[in-house]
Amino acid sequence: MSPTTPASAALEAAHRPGRLAWPAEQLAAKALDIRRDIITLLAKAQTGHSGGPLSSADFGAALFFHEINVDPARPDWPERDFWHFSIGHVTPVIYSLMAERGYFPLKDLMKFRAFDGHAQGHPSRHDTPGIEVSAGSLGQGLSVCCGVAMAARIDKHPRRVYCVMGDGEQQEGQIWEAAMFAAHYRLDQLCAVIDYNRKQIDGDVQDIMGIKPLDQKWRSFNWNVIECDGHAMPDILAALAAARAHKGQPSVILAHTVMGQGVSYMADDFHWHGKPPKMDQAEAALKELGTSYADWSARLLAN
Amino acid sequence: MATIEIKPTDTEGASNDPRADASITLPDKVEMKKTREGFGRALADLGEQDPRIVVLVGDLSESTMVHWFAEKFPERFIQVGIAEQNMMCIAGGLAAMGKIPFLATYGAFASCRSADQMRVTVAYSNLNVKIGGAHGGISVGPDGATHQAMEEISIVRSIPNMSMVVPCDFWETYKATIAVAKHNGPVYLRFGREDVPVVTQKETPFAFGRGEVFAEGRDLTIIACGVMVYEALRARETLAAQGVSARVVDLHTIKPLDRALIERCARETGAIVTAEEHQVHGGLGGAVAEVVVQRHVVPMELVAVHDRFGQSGKPAELMDAFGLRAKDIVAAAERVLARKPKR
Ligand SMILES: Cc1ncc(C[n+]2csc(CCOP(=O)(O)OP(=O)(O)O)c2C)c(N)n1
Ligand SMILES: [Mg+2]
Fold first, then answer.
1. In chain B, which residues have their Cβ closer than 8 Å to the Cβ of A139?
2. Quick check: is A4 in a domain?
3. Cβ atoms within 10 A of the Cβ of B30, count?
4. Does A111 touch chain B (CB under 8 A)?
5. Is residue B126 predicted with pLDDT exceeding 70?
6. Which of A83, A182, B12, B78, CA to CA, is 20 to 30 A from A57?
7. Domain CATH number, residue A96
8. Residue B5's pLDDT band (boundaries 50, 70, 90)?
9. Are B227 and B196 in contact (CB under 8 A)?
10. pLDDT digits (tens, 9 = 90+) for A1-55
């Protein structure tokens, strides 16, 4: 599955001590926890986005618990990889990933979007340690990541750079400015992941403003295009490994996902893009996810 | 965290510092030089002093004069092509990694085309990005309204965390560029296209965040920025011949604003005329007025562009037609003095 041989994996582990490289089964279990976090924090806050965070949970877990080289205790660790969600609205999954990985206590998730918490509605460098660049205006993140990759190039630093984008977000013109830039400068340490859930606020992406054929668009911009089932962990890991192994071009992973994945009544329904579940809906969702609001909120508050 | 920290972003103490005020008298014939050349020369020098300096440009290397830096430090020069929004955020990413990026494009595009990127990625994250906006003002000339940036001050100063400097000539642009590189935080530098009078010298004092009294006076203060500082100094000569003593302040740093100096001028001279090559709404005049109405109310007149787009023409013609000359400052001074309460 992974193109890295055991020997090179050992070598890489030595050079990238902040990379967890968890196996697929463990990651799938973590992704389940992340979905439980997302529903619980949204139920508590009664504000925020459900759909995109749930579709991003699996590749999010793979990024944070397998792929990226970071030290949550030292968010500014010089050796770190850079990760950035250009889709700032998916803060429920971003904060869950960060807390589960140890950037801040899990109990902070219970103050999502609250006046007395740090977890802003959209990620804020000023408020949350580990958020390196604020986001929330779509279309800007890939450019930010190009800047980070250029800095690494100037410093001859092996830093890898991961940028998560939305599929609706592909309608932003600035993304294609950045796509052109990254290919022009052959930023092969850059890996973009697109949450290809086929939905956006007003409906189906293809109806709102069609983006197909997205793979061909990126290919024609001179990117290495990789597709994967964004809910199948081995597939996601293979895609990330392929991106890491590819030289001379930036890579983009089209992660085919389902908006609201993991909660039956949310799945594939664009109405869940930007709203939280009501408390009874949250209970139903958490039941499907094998827990309850009481149990899961207690877990969060205890940590 | 529930209490909101109210921190004044403007400067207070700066103008109380012991300072050697420049006393500037203009010769009849003044040397002419481009402000943007000061930007370009400073970047080339900065590149040597600090390896963190990186320069980005959007297909305007020679007009923004960053080509000197590019020749000396090709590995730290990034050509972005015609993609200003991309460039603003790339600069943000570089700054997040500890670089000191200077981006260069025309002010019209730096301020308006990439305003959202400046607001969200750069300013909200408080990233150490320096934005060089060339071709500010009506004096851009023949290119016409699209290229005559006259909204920059109001846009930039309304965004939290942003600082802004509008230097008056070659030397001041040179010094401002060096100074903002040492300031940690996002800064917008505005400079012009044309050769403009060099009113300062290499030795003239310059401090980021502090206005400079360029000439003393008792009856009113002319507060200006950019090329209007020269016009203000000329206006002062005309007024002196009429027996009016005008103080001239070069308020190059629009933000953080030297409020103490503005208040002192209001108290000591009792009337203020502002002069800027910019729209009247939200510009230098507005910034000064915000201090005056809250600290010490005196009559004010604002010399600026009055809510209209520019047009093609020779720079000198346009400065005349848009009322941005010494004679316009003199007329404003006469109006403000007429409104000044008699002692
Ligand atoms: C520049 C900008 N325009 C509009 C919005 C409002 N907005 C937030 S999310 C969103 C839809 C994004 O669609 P997609 O990228 O598919 O994310 P998903 O809905 O799948 O989470 C929009 C329009 C925004 N945040 N930024
Ligand atoms: Mg979508």
1. 85
2. no
3. 15
4. no
5. yes
6. A182
7. 3.40.50.970
8. low
9. yes
10. 344 455 666 666 667 899 999 999 999 999 999 999 999 999 999 999 999 999 9
Query: Which residues are paired to B222 by β-bridges?
Result: B248, B273
Active site residues per annotation of B: 84
Class (C level, CATH) for B2-12+20-30+201-339? alpha beta
Q: Examine residue A7 and state whether it is found in any structural domain, yes or no.
A: no
Residue A293 amino acid letter: Y
* Ligand 1 proximity of A51 Cβ (cutoff 6 Å): yes
Report the residue of A144, A146, A187 to disrupt the B interface, i.e. the one with the largest count of B CBs within 10 Å.
A144
Interchain proximity B124–A149, CB inside 8 Å: no
Strands (E), chain B: 32-34, 53-57, 77-79, 100-106, 130-134, 163-165, 187-190, 195-197, 212-215, 220-224, 246-250, 253-255, 272-279, 300-305
User: Looking at residue A4, what is its pLDDT?
Assistant: 46
Place of tokens 């992974």: A2
* Cα–Cα distance, B218 to B197 (Å, whole number): 25
How many beta carbons lie within 10 A of that of residue B184, not counting itself?
12
| Residue A130: per-residue pLDDT | 97
Average of per-residue pLDDT values in chain A? 96
**Total number of domains in chain A:** 1
Taking only the tens place, the pLDDT of each residue in A86-123 is 999 999 999 999 999 999 999 999 999 999 999 999 99
Put simply, the answer to whether A136 touches B83 (Cβ < 8 Å) is: no
Q: Residue A209 corresponds to which amino acid?
A: M
Distances, alpha carbon A141 to alpha carbons A82, A169, B11, B79, B93, in Å: 12, 10, 33, 19, 9
Q: Determine the Cα–Cα distance for residues B153 and B142; give it in Å rounded to an integer.
A: 22
C-beta neighbour count of A139 within 10 angstroms: 25
Asked if the model's pLDDT at residue A268 lies above 50, the reply is yes
CA of A196 to the centre of ligand 2 (A): 6
Whole-angstrom Cα distance, residue B300 to residue A53? 54
| Separation of alpha carbons B229 and B169, rounded Å | 9
What DSSP state is assigned to residue B222? E
Residue A5 lies in a domain: no
Separation between Cα atoms, residue A264 and residue A259, nearest integer Å = 11
Identical fold between B2-12+20-30+201-339 and B32-197: yes
Longest CA pairwise span in chain A (Å): 53
With left for phi above 0 and alpha for psi between -120 and 50, is residue A81 left, alpha or beta?
beta
CATH fold of B32-197 reads Rossmann fold (3.40.50)
- Residue A117 in any domain: the answer is yes
| Residue A90, pLDDT score | 98
- Residue partners of B318: CB distance under 8 A and separation at least 6: B138, B139, B141, B310, B311
